[in-house]
## 1
Amino acid sequence: MAYSEKVIDHYENPRNVGGFDKNDPTVATGMVGAPACGDVMKLQLKIGPNGIIEDAKFKTYGCGSAIASSSLVTEWVKGKSIDEAVLIKNTHIAEELALPPVKIHCSILAEDAIKAAVADYKKKHSA
Ligand code: FES
Ligand code: FES
């Protein structure tokens, strides 16, 4: 299977690899797994008081498409509000990276990771 140039670029030069302290109240953590293949993605967002995502980092144990999808979303979410970030759809990711049908679930993992991180943030901040 041939990877698109964008996948290879993100795979070879992943953006924003790493993590933040999950106990920091401004940090949201989304950890999701793909039942189909066992790959795991951890996405962390650093969120300002106004709900704007100031920074994002990821660690992905998975295939090239999963790594590229998570790298891409760390770039996309920065500067967005959490309400805007949850509107990012796996179809946008798959289209940007030109993922073939068998790799669509890798982009779903990235969409799910954003939603999981935002849910974590809302849980942390619900009084
Ligand atoms: Fe093995 Fe995704 S199926 S890395
Ligand atoms: Fe399973 Fe990519 S996340 S093959």
## 2
Amino acid sequence: MSAPYYHTIGKEVSVFEQTYKCKLPILLKGPTGTGKSRFIEYMAHELDTKLITISCHEETSSTDLIGRFIIKGAEAVWLDGPLTTAVKNGSILYLDEIAEARPDVIVAIHSLTDHRRELFIDKLGQTIKAHEDFMLVASFNPGYQRGFKELKPSTRQRFVAVSFAYPEPKIETQILVSETEVEPDIAKKLVNIATKIRNLTELGLTETVSTRLLVDAAKLIHSGLPKRLAVHVAVIEPLTDDLEVIQALKDLSDLMI
Ligand code: ADP
């Protein structure tokens, strides 16, 4: 399989390589759509290791990660969850949006994030040592505005942490072109629109324009949707439901593309 496309932004690749070597857990911090998932796919490929991804949500519990007994015929059979599988076979386990998960998930990974590197499976009364290639990676959206769950300092301090932000315009333009084959001139305009909207902090948007939204807009344009319509449906509408803000953003972006 060829390597997933990932454009390096800073020192994240060497930080990750050394963290992997030192068998430490790592936290990827940053808003949604800034390339965290793509980065970890790329690193797993570079390090030639398996990757198991769990998208955490408010119902994600330690049982979902560790495993459970299921009834098969007249018997209860134990089924490893993804965390147990990764601990045993030495995969990278990526807990995407870890702060969304239930608190017992944090408790479950505790002994894996320090020198012990072991997992306690309470339902089996077993403690298993992590495979030497096992690595725990989590992502977290710090969300300076409302609506985001926090991660306790005592949890955060168990991880090496790397920040992800929107790439500088030149790099973001390159990403759009590589991802979608959209014309460079259009990619540049999309990035300009994003930069403008990102600077409009007074709009109080919970999340602003991510690289992901720009990639979507570029894909739609490349496939034939008119440019302004593509920006409207792929960039503006996903950001807000406030009709006045939508109109203001539309007026602004129509002038720029
Ligand atoms: P996150 O996990 O931070 O929410 P993703 O990794 O899913 O974000 O990124 C969203 C999309 O943005 C990716 O599918 C990719 O198209 C693009 N992208 C963002 N940053 C990069 C990057 N540095 N290199 C390549 N593609 C990127």
